[in-house]
Amino acid sequence: VKALAAAVAALALSASPALGASPSLARGKVLFVAACGSCHTLAAAGTHGRKGPNLGSEDSSYREVVDRVVRGGDGMPALGKTLTRRQIADIAAFVAHATAGAAHDD
Ligand code: HEC
Q1: Range of lowest pLDDT (16-20, 38-42, 57-61, 78-82)
Q2: Which residue among 17, 78, 87, 92 is least packed, with the fewest CB closer than 10 Å?
């Protein structure tokens, strides 16, 4: 968790405040690799984690991803205090975009 916090802090420093208000898919992808990739496989991010489900196999909405990342649960850590709201928004936008069109199983 320390290594993750350091990686996330480094990313926060490198992100320019001039990038604008809307979520960034490019930043979301980099953050996903750093914060989620060790546990989740997602082809669009090139990750192969196996502790959590393969996120590419079902359609996750932006809201679902935000909720899950903030709250965690069922073996997933809550990251709402590790990541900033902005970072979570970027990650959720990236995951929703990457999984759009996959089967939805809720
Ligand atoms: C330490 C491992 C770990 C990390 C890090 C992690 N997850 Fe998870 N995640 C899990 C596990 C385990 C589950 C399965 C929980 C369950 O069975 O419902 C899960 C479930 C999910 C789900 C629900 C998937 C589904 O099929 O219902 C989403 C979405 C998700 N994670 C997104 C993320 C995102 C985005 C990140 C990075 C910010 C992340 N996770 C980081 C372990 C992790």
Answers
A1: 16-20
A2: 17
